[in-house]
Amino acid sequence: MKGLDNNGKLTFLSRLIDLAKKTAKYCYEGVWSDTRSGLIINVIKTLNLSVKSFFNADIQSTACAMSFRTLLATVPVLALLFAIGRGFGFASLMQTSLFNYFPSQREAIETGLKFVDSYLETASKGVFVGIGVIMLLWTLISLVSSGEAAFNKIWGVRKGRSFWRKLTDYTAIFLILPVLMISITGINVLMSSTLKSLMPYPEFSPLISTVLDITGVVLTWLFFTGVYILVPNTKVKFPNALLAGVISGTCFIVLQWLFVSGQVYVSKYNAIYGSFAFLPLLMLWLQFVWIITLAGAVICYASQNIFRYSFSSHISVISDNYRYKAVVAVMAILVDKFKKHLPAPDANMIALEYGFPIGLASGILEDLLDVGVVAKVYVDSRVQEFGYMPAVDINALTVKSLLEKLSSNGASDFIPGFNERFKEISDTVDKISNYKDDDDILISNLTINN
Q1: Contact criterion met (CB below 8 Å) for 39 and 105
Q2: CA-to-CA distance for 65 and 403, rounded, in angstroms?
Q3: How far apart are CA 10 and CA 153, in angstroms?
């Protein structure tokens, strides 16, 4: 038999292949049924979820759409950056940085900066006072809103910010992130002049250069970290955002180096596209930047939510009977907490105390919220932590009434002529699903064994 030696045992190569298959199966599927905690297991889960989320979230298509939106908002974004930069006295430095990033496209950049100057002049001296500023802010808010939608999709957030929260949160983003971007450029000049005055000796030049490079890298990391904390409409933990910020920031720095180094080959594109050579290069650069940014958001989400996907392969094929049991159990937990005047639990608490996979607990709580038997309440409004509590009379809520609400939730009676054509079938199913009231029981009377 193939794979066996003369003694009938598996050869070393066969054992190695078998081990590789088992390891791959564990990393892809089995790891989510592993309840142990450890660094290696968490790393495998994070990488697993990152790869799956990267493809499931359709990062490539989203990056293309965001690149197009960013291109439309290029002039307003540069106008905002240059307006803030001029306030700090860094406008000429920012212009020099653009020339350094695109050394072969100096003429195109100068033309673009003329558009920026005209935009700023129009914004400050519009026909109607403030119209230019409003249009500038509206363009930027639309861009960030699209970015928030992309991040919310990755995080599984169903609802974005309200209009007023967009005004307040986006204003904070416009003030913090641009200043940090400008600081990445300006701090190099400030530290360079300061360090040279403190250490005027030539032998310290390599050390000064190293310190400046490290400072720029750290500020880039902090910029991406700020993006992952501020943009999604959910609570993002700083360690997870920092991890994603370091990875994305490093990839961005490498991209910048490759892009600047590859400018020597731009002459070939100039021969084909002429004065429009800058446009495809800018679109390519924006595409890669958004891929890096969105991939970092996936890593941030994966590192913070690996516990949500325990037993995910089982949850995806859970039977209706077992899910109904889990639904009643979750509702019984909420009722029990309410009766004992304990804090309203969330999915995390239910998972920790009762061993529920958090993905299943989260889905059940959302279903109960949809049918109106539970309500979402803030446990701590300062950090936007909330839990769930019964929204109906617990002395009237029975197992039958709960399951009836769940089974009837969703669209129904939309097939033309269904009840007339299949009347006997419909009546039979209704009779089977409606078991005797004598068998019913109040959920508040159910026992939970800890």
Answers
A1: no
A2: 42
A3: 48
CB 443 within 8 A of CB 394: yes
* Closest by Cα among 365, 439, 428 to 401: 439
Place of tokens 């920012």: 94
**Which of 231, 298, 232 has the alpha carbon at shortest distance from 56?**
298
DSSP for 359-383?
Answer: HHHHHHHHHHHHTTSEEEEEEETTT
Token readout for 302 is 């994966």
Report d(CA 358, CA 91) in Å as an integer: 50
Q: Is 328 helix (H, G, I), strand (E, B) or coil?
A: helix
**How many angstroms separate the CA atoms of 311 and 359, rounded?**
8
In the block, residue with structure tokens 């731009």: 266
Within the chain, how many helices (H) and strands (E) appear? 19, 2
Cα 346 to Cα 358: distance, rounded to the nearest angstrom: 10
CA–CA distance, 403 with 373 (Å, rounded to integer): 11
| Residue showing tokens 């049918």 | 371
pLDDT tens track for 97-137? 666 666 555 666 666 676 666 666 665 555 444 555 666 66
DSSP 384: T
Look at residue 202 and give its three-state secondary structure: helix
Residue 18 confidence (pLDDT): 82
- Give 60-86 pLDDT, tens digit per residue: 888 888 888 887 777 666 766 666 666
**Residue 398, SS3 per DSSP:** strand
Q: Are the C-beta atoms of 405 and 371 separated by less than 8 Å? A: yes
Residue 228 CA: distances (Å) to CA of 109, 174, 231: 29, 14, 6
Collect all residues with Cβ–Cβ distance below 8 Å to 402 and sequence separation of at least 6. Answer: 327, 328, 331, 373, 443
Residues 6 or more apart in contact with residue 439 via CB below 8 angstroms: 400
Q: What span, in angstroms and rounded, lies between the C-alpha atoms of 182 and 209?
A: 19
DSSP category for residue 317: T
Q: If you ran DSSP here, which 8-state letter would residue 216 be given?
A: H
Comparing CA positions, the residue from 432, 362, 438, 359 lying closest to residue 399 is 438
Separation of alpha carbons 296 and 139, rounded Å: 25
Phi-psi region of 384 (alpha: psi -120 to 50; beta: other; left: phi over 0): left
Binning pLDDT at 50, 70 and 90, where does residue 268 land? low
Compute the residue count for the chain.
450
Question: What integer pLDDT is reported at residue 174 of this predicted model?
Answer: 65
Q: Are 219 and 184 in contact (CB under 8 A)?
A: yes
The DSSP secondary-structure symbol of 10 reads B
Please report where in the chains the tokens 């558009």 appear, as a residue.
115
